[in-house]
Write a structure and sequence with these properties.
The structure is a single chain. This protein has 403 residues and is an alpha/beta fold. 34% of the residues lie in helices and 23% in strands. α1 crosses α11 and α3 packs across α11 (386-402). The longest helix is centred in the C-terminal third of the chain and has 22 residues, at 288-309. The protein is elongated and about 80 Å long. Bound molecules: (2S)-amino(hydroxy)ethanoic acid and manganese (II) ion (MN) (2 copies).
Length: 403
């Protein structure tokens, strides 16, 4: 079976896991669905004769036993994730893990002595706790115990406790022995497709600040409370939602973005003036100063709204990472590999966050993008071409053999 057919078979097998009736996938991190995804990918790797090991936070690594337990030697890590957002697609993360497996298979077939491990990082998505790339943050020293304890899901369980409940160690040792980190990922935007290109070499990765903004007013009777004496938390939140969009749009030229992804309104019934409304904000950028201007504008507006309407305001910053620039040397070498294979490409930033961003202070990091249809991602319509994944593997192989 050729690599294209093997990938098609692998995706078809994984389709059964976390599938929703509407065709989307919900494969949340640190759940038995993510466990099932990892176990299934390990099943593919065992059939190829590979071994695996799991670290103290549940990240899993696949390697060629024939090369020995080469975690003792400097190795290339090709990694991504297999969890998804709620009602997401099936290529986000998974394409990169399966591409790594194809590269490992080709190294073995060609008898090359290139120490490569394929990594599957836990809970890359922030859907449940508001923190992205948890598994890779934990082993790259990018997250504190306080942050893990502050991040809570709706039932109040902290990410720290969730990791412990799963039998893992929320204070793991740092990963060592990495020569370089490579990741292939769908673009999750429209740039490649709009230019008719099949490959992007990633130059930088935007980073999010995620925060809860809670307005507390006065829960009242919706019929008997005159408009001039209300303390309606939802109206204040609605004004802030509009302001988040405006503040981020003011920074359009610097590629900053702002999203209100969550709204929790209490008591959320017809005949009661809302007394408590919480917004979940995701504000990102590749330019830290620009992102900061959006943040400051949103926080100032929240304070002004609370004051104007006589509400209490509570802002809780859940996570904040810095935008990262990837290795220029690696960008040039990945570009050279693509040129050698006559694969036209561009160098481009990533608006989405990725595990790759957590390794820039540990080793050189390189990232490849393949297009996804209409740039759609985090959506059941997410779709990518298996042939593009194979082409991405070709570039990774060409790079590894030439460097
Ligand atoms: O949200 C993101 O940037 C990605 O899906 N982790
Ligand atoms: Mn994602
Ligand atoms: Mn992803």
């Amino acid at each position: 079976m050729n690599d294209l057919d093997l990938l098609i078979t692998w995706f078809a097998t994984l389709d059964k896991i976390g599938a929703n009736e509407d065709g989307s996938f919900s494969r949340l991190g640190y759940t038995d669905t993510e466990d099932a995804m990892i176990a299934t990918v390990l099943g593919f790797s065992e059939l190829l004769g590979f071994g695996c090991y799991t670290d103290e936070v549940g990240n899993t690594f696949i390697y060629d036993k024939a090369l020995g337990d080469n975690s003792k030697v400097e190795r290339t890590l090709i990694a991504s994730h297999v969890d998804s957002v709620v009602s997401g697609g099936k290529y986000d993360g998974v394409a990169g893990v399966l591409a790594g497996l194809i590269v490992l298979k080709r190294i073995k077939e060609q008898g090359l002595n290139i120490p490569v491990h394929v990594g599957i990082f836990r809970m890359e998505e922030s859907s449940v706790f508001g923190i992205a790339t948890t598994g890779s943050k934990l082993v790259s020293g990018q997250i504190t115990e306080a942050t893990l304890k502050n991040a809570k899901e709706q039932n109040g369980v902290s990410l720290y406790d969730r990791i412990k409940e799963c039998g893992f160690n929320p204070n793991p040792p740092k990963i060592t022995g990495l020569k370089q980190y490579l990741e292939l990922h769908i673009e999750q935007g429209r740039v490649l497709e709009s230019k008719g290109l099949k490959l992007g070499v990633v130059s930088s990765i935007a980073a999010p600040v995620r925060m809860w903004v809670k307005f507390t007013g006065k829960q009242d009777h919706s019929g008997a409370t005159p408009m001039d004496i209300r303390k309606d938390s939802l109206v204040a939140a609605a004004e802030l939602v509009i302001h988040v969009e405006q503040a981020a749009t003011n920074e359009l030229n610097n590629a900053s973005v702002g999203t209100t992804g969550i709204i929790r309104n209490t008591p959320n019934v017809f005949n009661v003036v809302p007394g408590e409304t919480t917004l979940g904000l995701d504000i990102r950028g590749i330019d830290k100063a620009s992102r900061q201007r959006v943040l400051e504008s949103v926080e100032l507006k929240a304070k002004q709204l609370a004051e104007k309407r006589g509400l209490e305001l509570d802002i809780n910053k859940v996570s904040s990472s810095d935008p990262v620039k990837l290795s220029t040397d690696l960008q040039n070498k990945l570009s050279a590999a693509a040129n050698k294979l006559n694969i036209e490409h561009i160098v481009m930033p990533s608006g989405a966050g990725h595990d790759a961003m957590n390794f820039v202070d540990i080793c050189p990091v390189g990232m490849l993008f393949i297009p996804c249809v209409d740039g759609i991602s985090h959506n059941k319509l997410e779709s990518a071409s298996i042939a593009d994944i194979v082409a991405g593997c070709d570039v990774l192989m060409e790079y590894l053999k030439s460097n």
